[in-house]
Write a structure and sequence with these properties.
Distance between the termini: 54 Å
Radius of gyration: 23 Å
Largest sheet: 7 strands, mixed
Number of strands: 17
Helix content: 25-40%
Number of domains: 2
Order of helices and strands: HEHEHEEEEEHEHEHEHEEEEEEHEH
Strand content: 15-25%
CATH superfamily of the largest domain: FAD/NAD(P)-binding domain
CATH topology of the largest domain: FAD/NAD(P)-binding domain
């Protein structure tokens, strides 16, 4: 269980690593670092991206598990290795590294891992937000099997919707693409037709919901197309303010740049999970957290060895 910690003097003790964010990436990193006997504290605001989803999929041995249960299990595991969990929101990270929480607490660390994830910006279509994670879905690999062989819709609210629709054809013979505000090219239309997808023109007015279930897509001209589930591609906005304020650079796609271990361009700072890879699934994010943990521990080890050498040489010099 994550608790509020008001022991300021304890908080100002220097931790080996402060992990910001307790999703799959942050928890898996904390697990490995805790098992490496590092002093680790994890700070989390308790707002996981996948909270609306009933189950997660594609995670070996955890397929079908509720996301909240995965996080609960993860929190229990890391506390067994002495990792401390703090409920709260980080407002700023300073070089050095001081992690300042909203409310005044400050956590000092030798290294920092940011695993703050992202938020999904949804289109302003009535019914979308209410059904998000239920029968309005995003990832075919995560959710399409559960609605296989049923009438599906793909909403054209993002350029990636065309690929999403082509992919969904693997799970159902009845997929309707609604361009909505998306300007389809002739090539797009040819590819959709070649895969046997039907295109229904016109703006989307709302999602038809009855009996706590999606029933169809209503267009602005009054037509309604019956569907049992709808897929859309949200605008994914990484929670990367902490990183950019530190001076972490971004790549050509607008994401914070890291190497394969999650190391950013700022010394001592790593990032993992959806904050640097919006397309990463839960199992991928967990792997990114593991990779970051290995690299962070190695970096700390190098520093520990350098310090030990300095002390050894200093002691040798005093005994001459």
């Amino acid at each position: 269980m994550i608790t509020n910690d008001t022991q300021r003097t304890a908080d100002r003790a220097v931790h080996d690593v402060v992990v910001v964010g307790a999703g799959a990436a942050g928890l898996n990193a904390a697990l490995i670092l805790g098992r490496a006997r590092r002093r680790v504290v994890v700070v989390d605001a308790g707002e996981p991206r996948n909270a609306p989803a009933a189950h997660l999929h594609g995670f070996l041995s955890r397929d079908g598990l509720p996301p909240a249960t995965l996080l609960e299990l993860g929190r229990a595991e890391i506390t067994r290795y002495g990792v401390r969990l703090v409920r709260g929101r980080v407002g700023r990270i300073d070089h050095g590294y001081s992690v300042s929480m909203v409310g005044g607490q400050v956590l000092d660390a030798r290294r920092v891992l940011v695993a703050t994830g992202l938020r999904d910006e949804l289109p302003n279509i009535p019914g979308v937000r209410e059904r998000w994670g239920k029968d309005v879905l995003h990832c075919p690999y995560c959710h399409a099997y559960e609605v296989r062989d049923q009438p599906l819709a793909v909403l054209g609210t993002h350029p990636a919707a065309v690929h999403q629709a082509l992919l969904l054809r693997q799970w159902s013979d009845d997929v309707v693409f609604f361009p909505h505000t998306l300007d389809l090219t002739a090539e797009d239309r040819d590819r959709l037709a070649a895969r046997g997808l039907r295109i229904v023109e016109g703006g989307i007015e709302r999602l038809v919901v009855e009996g706590d279930r999606l029933r169809g897509i209503e267009l602005t001209d009054g037509r309604a197309v019956p569907r049992v589930a709808a897929f859309l591609f949200p605008r994914m906005v990484p929670h990367d303010d902490l990183l950019t304020r530190l001076g972490c650079g971004k790549d050509g796609s607008g994401l914070v740049s890291t190497d394969r271990s999650g190391r950013t361009g700022v010394a001592g700072v790593w990032a993992a999970g959806n904050v640097v890879d919006p397309r990463a699934q839960v199992i991928t994010a967990a792997g990114m957290g593991a990779a970051a943990a290995f690299a962070i521990n190695t970096d700390l080890l190098d520093e520990d060895v350098d310090r030990a050498l300095e002390q050894r040489r200093a002691q040798a010099a005093t005994t001459r």
